[in-house]
Amino acid sequence: MHAALAVIFLTLFSGGGFGLMALVAIVNDLHIDGGLSPIQTLAAVILSLIFVTIGMLSSTAHLANPKNAWRAFTRWRTSWLAREGIFAVAYYPFAFAYLVWTFVTGAPDATVGLILASLAGVIGLITIFCQGMIYAVLRTIRQWNTALVPANFYAMGLAIGATLLAAVRIVTGESAGVFVGIAIALIAAVAVMKAIYYFWIARPSGPTIRTATGFNRFTVRILDQGHTFGTFLTEEFGHTLARDKARGIKLMMYFFAVIVPIIALAFAVAYQSAVAAVIAAVSIVFGLGVERWLFFVEAQHVVNLYHGRQRC
Amino acid sequence: MRLGLVIDLDTCVGCHACAVACKEWNTSGTTAPLTDYNPYGAKPSGVWFNRIRHYEIGEYPYNKTVNFPMSCMHCENAECVTVCPTGASHKRPEDGIVLVDQSKCMGCNYCSWACPYGARELDRVSGTMKKCTLCIDRIYDMEIPEEERQPACVLTCPAHARMFGDFDDPESPVSRAVRERGGYQLMPELNYDPSNHYLPPRVHAPIPTEGLKKKAGAKVKEWVNRVVER
């Protein structure tokens, strides 16, 4: 698949923003480690809003005809993309209301505030599910057509959110041991979940050039694609990645998304280092950005079979 | 009604006339234009509803070239319609034709991801998804003679390798062809249930080339050819 930066940013940033909002709600609801102070709550909710907004804006950037984007809310009965759009928009009023509530009353843990935060968090989590299902329902791309995709989107959104929350806690100069613990646990979950995913998609399965052409008992070889230069199909679906190159990029992904954030977070909590906390946050976003790029480039659409690929 | 095409892989000669006729008709049709990018430049490209690929089936000497035209299959389980968030992609209940409403499409490409057959192509200029309409602006046109109310690709095919008709009618020519010739769907395991069917190449008795007994007349002819100088 063609890995458009706009689509990478959509799920990467909005997923992180929704994960952060959900964790803010959980932490304040359950009063974990004393809950967040008003300043921390404001900072975290603003960060969440910024992340979600980056995601939403970049999603419209990849539309070829954005003037019809408002219609994308109409087919929620069948389309996960429409559902994602509706829930993503529904998140805003509750997140904003919680922001205003905390700013005005200075009591992020009052009942009304907690209800607003919880609603924003739950809607965010539902949106992550919808985002995962956009990819998981496609039977045409076996690397995506698995329940691991929405599950991984949860792990990664929550890991980004937890790292951001720990960074907010450390930067504002408060004890963050519990928050760093949550973040590292979620990052470890991401490492394991992605490993399962890579194991899962490693073996080719599904349609082959034989079932694609119907000549099930013969070898089938392409003689001519029938076009002189690229088509929409080759540009959109033709991208692949050599196996050894993919391995190197996966190692890079694990380095930036897992190893650096864990070390930086441990360092940050031990020495109350705001710089290390920010490094952890930047590194995990970059690392999971690489992950999302791989997610697209490794996805092999079955239409490639008609262009001569023996299997996908 | 379930309208669709039957493509005869036995007689298709791979001339691309169907693709050209399609392009000509539809570039001024309901989803017009079919934009070309850089048509006279070094790397011409553009939007086509119909593409023909060429494959070698089997191993030499038991091999065969098969020409493979592909356009929208107008699937019964059209996932491209299911995933469309705007309602631009729709399947007509009365005849099963899958269409894209150009005034509603936002160009998100999602339907093209859902299509296993590569039937949908984004027009970069209009910013909308375009696809085969089964020449909906021909087949229902009461102004043209009845025998011409067929898709442009079917009318133009010089090898009569394309048939158009209703698959819901068991006695229609397309249904009979599929039944009698073992017509099949592409990638049935994905369960899209495409309307378009493909007829496999016929099995012909091999034409002998070695160890042939020559007829007496042929022998005389050969002898005359050798002896008579021109």
UniProtKB/TrEMBL annotation, chain B:
Leader sequence residues? none
CDD domains linked to this entry: PsrB
Q: Name one GO molecular function term.
A: metal ion binding
Q: Which InterPro entries match?
A: 4Fe4S_Fe-S-bd, 4Fe4S_Fe_S_CS, ET_IronSulfur_Cluster-Binding
Q: Which UniProt keywords apply?
A: 4Fe-4S, Iron, Iron-sulfur, Metal-binding
Q: Which residues form the 4Fe-4S ferredoxin-type domain?
A: 3-33, 62-94, 96-125
Pfam families the record matches: Fer4_11, Fer4_2
Q: What's the domain of life for this entry?
A: Bacteria
PANTHER family per UniProt: PROTEIN NRFC, PROTEIN NRFC HOMOLOG
Q: What is this protein called?
A: 4Fe-4S dicluster domain-containing protein
